[in-house]
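thread from #wetlab-drylab

HS: before we spend reagent money on co-crystallization trials with Z5A, can we at least see a predicted complex? here's what I'd submit
DV: go for it
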Amino acid sequence: MSAFIAIEGLEGAGKSSVIAALKALLEKHDITVVTTREPGGTPMAEAIRDCVKKDWEGERVTQQTELLLMYAARSQLVENVIKPALDKGNWVLGDRHDLSSVAYQGGGRGVPLETLAALRQMTLGEFAPDFTLYLDIEPELGLARARGRGELDRIEQAGLGFFERARATYLEHINALPNAVLIDASQGIKAVQNDATAALEHFIKGQS
Ligand code: Z5A
């Protein structure tokens, strides 16, 4: 048995610390874990990540370019890393996946859902996470945490309204997903990790 678990949420929601706790939990169950991040996770997808996150002086990055780069990186990652890992029986913990595009490019930038659906179908077909953990946080708090780490990148500089729309879109979609759990990420790190590991434990039990 194998499973692809996507961890979603705004910046500073605590995805990295949650992934570390989930990995430790799966390893306790003798499960081999592969961790990925999006955009990124293969040499080419990491190059796309640098490209899409950086500020291009004197050049506006269009919403179409940003959108296409996200799906190009995702296609590379799914075909070269995620599917082969699942085929070997490993579990994959993904720091972001397709729901990020729905929230950021769809909700945040205003790309129509039909456009996203067409790109998803072209690049992923029916491939989707088996389980999604969404770490919910108010944008002000998440961005303050991210800012505490240093300079904000091009996407992080998009303004509060962008992140508020992204969060609203996350909430709308997470409530409609069958295998998804929302976690209150405004709590302390330990509490967020505990809620996330409890949710994954419940998912694992349901698989056996
Ligand atoms: N993006 C997109 O637009 N469309 C897409 O399809 C995809 C992505 C896939 C990826 O950059 C950017 O691409 C992202 C979305 C966009 N941009 N924005 N804006 P990234 O991977 O660098 O960004 P991120 O995923 O948002 O990373 P992040 O800020 O590192 O978020 P995180 O992993 O959830 O947070 P963290 O590293 O675990 O924690 C951040 C800091 O907060 C750190 O100092 C922690 O110690 C602290 N922290 C975490 N949790 C807590 C709690 N509970 N209490 C207190 N402090 C905490």
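DV: Residues 4-207 form a domain with the Rossmann fold fold (CATH 3.40.50.300).
HS: ok that's useful, forwarding to the group
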